[in-house]
Amino acid sequence: MNPERGFPSIEFAERTRRCQTEMARRQLGAMVVCTEPEVRYFTGFHTPFWQSPTRPWFVVIPADGKPIAVIPSIGAPSMATTWIDDIRTWSSPQPDDDGVSLLVDCVRDVAGSGPVGLPMGPETHVRMPLRDIDRLRSRVGQFVDVTDIISKLRMVKSEREVDKHRHICGVVSDAFQELPNLLNTGMTERQAFAAFRSEILRQGADDVPYLVGATGPDGFDDIIRQPSDREIVDGDLLIFDTGSTFDGYFSDFDRNFAFTKASQKAKDAYRAVWEATEAGLEVVRPGATTTEIFAAMNTVLKANGSLGNDVGRMGHGLGMQVTEWPSHTASDHTVVQENMVLTLEPGLVWAPGKAMIHEENIVVRGDGPELLSRRAAPELPIIT
Amino acid sequence: MNPERGFPSIEFAERTRRCQTEMARRQLGAMVVCTEPEVRYFTGFHTPFWQSPTRPWFVVIPADGKPIAVIPSIGAPSMATTWIDDIRTWSSPQPDDDGVSLLVDCVRDVAGSGPVGLPMGPETHVRMPLRDIDRLRSRVGQFVDVTDIISKLRMVKSEREVDKHRHICGVVSDAFQELPNLLNTGMTERQAFAAFRSEILRQGADDVPYLVGATGPDGFDDIIRQPSDREIVDGDLLIFDTGSTFDGYFSDFDRNFAFTKASQKAKDAYRAVWEATEAGLEVVRPGATTTEIFAAMNTVLKANGSLGNDVGRMGHGLGMQVTEWPSHTASDHTVVQENMVLTLEPGLVWAPGKAMIHEENIVVRGDGPELLSRRAAPELPIIT
CB neighbours of B207 closer than 8 A, spacing ≥ 6? Predict the structure, then answer.
């Protein structure tokens, strides 16, 4: 059974209430968000139209009451189907004043001359021309950074959100299980990508926005690549890493395979990242920190001869984006909470130019992690 | 035969040379770009990894010589496969200084204390936290807006780029041609979307990043929607609008169908937008303006009882993004040039809540438009 699509209004009301509690603590008169996941988080507005860079979109969260949409008129019919009542539109594109005045008026309507929040910190950007940000600031004044409010809200998922994650992780687990029946030596990387993408869709994903991978003799060093016309040969390793979606929520995990045979070193590297993940799973619980999770995995990798890696972290949050706050790093120190959805992603560079990356998706429960992805095999699977 | 993947280095050298000619005219010491299409335009770096909001990426274009990549170390192996030689990396995420210092050093290396360009105008955004933009400005000084340089370059496509557009438009035309064999009343919108997406992939698209559509009794008002569980019934109109990709270049056109029967008003509305497109095609040539194209289409729509529409324009540029500069509006006035790739997209609201949108993709040639999409039928197709 697929989880229900969308969310009941109570979910958005609850998100807004939690946000307004934090806003009150900071004495904010309003908060502005303007990127796809934030607008969707507060309104339910869901469209791939965000890929068009032409028009800015805004949601203003008042100190109390429902959020207000300040959007191009092309979005009005879709926004009208959400729980939002107050929808203010302008005909866009209108480069001379693309929503700026309408946004200023709305913010001043709800906040008076009080301070206004805007996410300006790590992992955020303001999705409008910098010239218009300057115009906005000249009329509203300086904004207060509310990255901490937004990240705190979005990092902890509701059970309805977790259900969507669990569903897409199951779909992708099923597709990975089919892979040995779909791939063989002699195929090109491009053919292998196409076969895997179509299998994920066949299994029930809505879309496969993120798919990277690589093949190579006994390994590779580049794990964010698009496919080439390289033919897969005996002894190759293959990695696929996909962020697939159900109802706008992502999975994000990878799997590694060898074709026909694998060196002992490759098998050992696989086992090491699998063991590192086990060590990570051991420490995940409410109250632990992302840095403790990092340290647990890193200890195992070091014991297995890690030469370091270029990824910069060993996993991250997961949600409406393929990566979200927090990051498992040596310095992140975010306290893990119940209902965070996280990836564990230890990476081992076991020889120059040879990386092995492993990834699982979990939700944090009171007593530890619940796996959302089906746990990878402890030994490197060999496609024969 | 599929067009060749990627581009030879000469293409990137030529793009850089044209950019540097404009920079010299403006006496710029360097230019910074930081969004996916711009980074890809100058380097060839191509990955869906941009969906992760965690890390900023920069390319610095000096007054002469090759562009310089200032990027997270996770991207170094991929960037090393491009024509770029100078790749400067840092281990990201590093919230306290996520590339800012490295970027400042690079800009000062190449520009000394000279003025530095950054796109800050319509259809652009700066893809890094606003807090870091402020830090950057406090160390580099104010940037010069170079939206005009970037848009001028990107609006005019090379023949290699046109070949990729033509290919994906052909693929999607083939998929639309198959639609009557794939869809029938009784299917849900969601099933129809899934069938169409998989057909586009089967026909040879790399991906279908943008797919919207709607069904409804005799029409609908919302054309940026995701599918619902609504069942298609006799007398429904259906619109699909897709931006599909080949090698990172988009198609963007729609098609309308009726199921089993259609009202005379719906047929007339379809004919009106088809005729409006004809009128647009008539005026497209180098030297015409986007406003003349708009006016030609708008005249036909008005003669057919248009109630106006919410889209805000009647077509746009097309390229590495599903929409790019320019816009066909009453005030855009961009002069059309040879090798611009454009959409024509007249929309007619023929009754309250009933919109008919039509779209074709073209490349501008010396003597007028070359159609990239296969021209829609002049009468509303009815799926029986």
Answer: A197, A208, B201, B244, B245
CB B227 within 8 A of CB B211: no
Residues of chain A found within 8 Å of residue B120, distances taken between Cβ atoms: 129-131
Domain extent for B121: 9-155
**Which member of A81, A143, A198 has the closest CB to residue B201?**
A198
Would you give the distance in Å from CA B146 to the centre of its chain?
Answer: 19
Residue B1 lies in a domain: no
**What is the distance between the alpha carbons of residues B164 and A98, in angstroms, rounded to a whole number?**
32
Do B219 and B320 fall into the same domain? yes
User: Does residue B150 sit in the same domain as residue B197?
Assistant: no
Residue B75: closest C-alpha in chain A: A224
Among residues B103, B120, B155, which one ends one of the domains? B155
CB-based contact B122 A93, cutoff 8 Å: yes
Total length of chain A: 384
Q: Does residue B294 form part of some domain?
A: yes
B57 near B34, Cβ under 8 Å? Answer: yes
Q: Nearest C-alpha of chain A: how many angstroms from B166?
A: 20
Tally of domains in chain A: 2
Query: Residue A198: its chain B contacts at CB < 8 A?
Result: 198, 201-202
Cβ within 8 Å, pair B95-A122: yes
- Classify burial at A104, counting beta carbons within 10 Å of its beta carbon; exposed 0-12, middle 13-18, buried 19 or more: middle
Q: What is the CA radius of gyration of chain A?
A: 23
Could you give the CA distance from residue B45 to residue B39 in angstroms, rounded to a whole number?
Answer: 7
Contacts of A118 in chain B (CB under 8 A): 130
Burial of B293 (0-12, 13-18, 19+ CB in 10 A): buried
Domain with A38 in it: what CATH number?
3.40.350.10
CB spacing of B54 vs A327 below 8 angstroms = yes
Question: Domain for residue B3, yes or no?
Answer: no
Reduced to 3 states (helix: H, G, I; strand: E, B; else coil), residue A316 is strand
Does this model's pTM top 0.95? My answer is: yes
For residue B330, give the chain A residue with the closest CA: A94
Nearest Cα to A268, choosing from A384, A378, A344? A378
How distant is the Cα of B353 from the closest Cα of chain A, in angstroms? 9
Query: Do both A140 and A173 map to the same domain?
Result: no
- The mean pLDDT value for B248-273 works out to 97
Do both B142 and B218 map to the same domain? no
Distance from CA of B222 to the nearest CA of A (A): 6
Q: How far apart are the first and last CA of chain B?
A: 34
* Domain co-membership, A129 together with A252: no
On whether the CB atoms of residues A318 and A364 are closer than 8 A, the answer is no
In a domain, B221, yes or no: yes
Please answer yes or no on whether B48 and A226 come within 8 Å at the CB atom.
Answer: yes
ipTM computed for the complex: 0.97
For the stretch A204-262, pLDDT in tens is: 999 999 999 999 998 888 888 899 999 999 999 999 999 999 999 999 999 999 999 99
Size of interface A-B (CB pairs under 8 A): 190
Name every chain B residue with its beta carbon within 8 A of the beta carbon of A202: 198
Domain stops at, among B102, B133, B155: B155
d(CA A147, CA A324) in angstroms, rounded, equals 12
Task: Tell me, yes or no, whether A44 and A86 share the same domain.
Answer: yes
Which CATH number characterizes residue B278's domain? 3.90.230.10
pLDDT in tens, A158-193: 999 999 999 999 999 999 999 999 999 999 999 999
Flag if A127 and B125 touch (Cβ within 8 Å).
Answer: yes
Hey, is A323 helix, strand or coil? coil
Q: Percent of chain A, pLDDT > 70?
A: 100
Do residues A167 and A308 share a domain? yes
Tell me: do B235 and B371 sit in the same domain.
yes
The dihedrals phi and psi of A308, each to the nearest 5 degrees, come to 85, 175
